Every structure is written in structure tokens, then in C-alpha cells.
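Proteins fold reproducibly. Look at a concrete instance:
___
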Amino acid sequence: MDKIPYSVCILTFNSGDSLDKTLISVKDFSEIIINDGGSKDNTLEIAKNYNCKIISQDVKFKNSDGSLADFSGVKNQMIDVAKYSWVLMVDSDEYVSKELVDYIRHLDQSKKNILYNIARKYIVANQIIKHSSTYPNYQIRLFNKSLNLKYIKPIHEKLNYSNEYKVEKVNQPFYVAMPDFIEFKRKGLKYLNMQLNMWDKLTFKQWFKWVLIFHLRASLGYALRLFLLQFKVGKKLPLNYELFQIYYNFLLIFKSLKLINKFK
């Protein structure tokens, strides 16, 4: 079967435990770009086995200790070097379902102004999670680079686009392999600190709108959905993962108080 003329873009850093499964899931695409952050494990060896195009994350997007400071910057790097017009963003701990591959294969490539908002489902202990308080979990991962769209925000990055483009939901999913809870919590707290560092100094108005209202509303939404999904049949995300989502938002609100510059 012919290759799908798309560029798949993947960020890696010591991703050897999951990368093989990720790359197997996208083997039908013409180009796979790996943007690596200096892996010391077998990440690059695995990437070479799949004939990936390997680039290095630009140091201007990294901290002095080598950790990643700007996720948008390194994703935009991959867009810039992509050979094909259509770009599919995949995380190194995800894999693309066969249904999604088939869906993409049959897309009308001439419709360049459509951004594809693709469903994500969690995998815990090799089981697909049917219900979670964060569902429906959609992210825009497929788009045409000729639109000159770029990612913005150093963390919790998102594609910057206007209302002139059509966003189409895709229910054929990515699958996300969740780490054990200790690692899940460690990563969450790492992102929390990155988010706090990004804000630097806030006015009270900014804190009230961007932090308090947004994250308080998110926590209440998670709590309500968590209550409702207890009445549903099917595999659910373990409760400790769910409660951490709520804890994360309240902790962020509390820790951001010290960043308020002036109450005005």
C-alpha cells in the first residue's frame, strides 16, 4: 500500500520505552520527524531503525540545565522542516489507532483550510479508558502547513488560528499510555512549576481572570463530571489520577498568589 504523503512530527527525550510502539503506529506515513532533546537512552537508535528524519531541539528553547522551556518553539521547528504540506503532531507516549490512520489516508487533501481536532483516549494497565472527567479530550493535531499556523505559549501549547478556518472533530483516536501514578504526579508538578515561571508577575486583574476564575471553573467541572461518570458503565480512569487533576488546579491557584505584583 502506498505511503500517506504527510509529515508526522514527534518530540522525544529518553522516550525509548514508548517510541517503538508510536513509530509502528505511523509507519504508513511518508515522513517521520523526530525532534530530540538530547536523549541518553536508545531513543535515537529506535528512530534510525524507522528511517526517521532526526533533528535536535534548538538550545534557545531550552533551560540552562537542558530541560525544555518552550514546547511551542520546538514544535514550530518541526513544522518548518516538514517536507509535506500536511502535518500530524504525535506525542512520543501516544500511538495512532488503525482507524485514525485509515481516516487520514482517505481525507480530501485539497481542503487545506480544515483543522482536524482529534480525540485522545487513555490507556492504563493495557486497558482503554472509556470514561474520564477530562473527556471529551480533543486536540488539533492535523493541519496544512501552508496556512502558516504556529504554536503559541511555552507550556500547554496550542495552535494559533482564526475563525476563518473550519475545525472538524475526528472520533478515531490517538491512544495515550498513562504512566504509573507516581510518574504522572511528578510530571504534573513539573508542568505546574513551568507554568508558574511563565507567568512571572501578575496584576490582580490578570490573576483573577486567568488563574482564579479559569482554574476554579476547571476544577468544578472536573468534580461534576467525575461524580456523573460514576453512574456510567465501562472502564474508568483510576480515582487518584482524577483527583490529582482537581488538586493541580487548586495548587496552581494557591501558589500563584505570590506572583501578584499589584492589586489593581
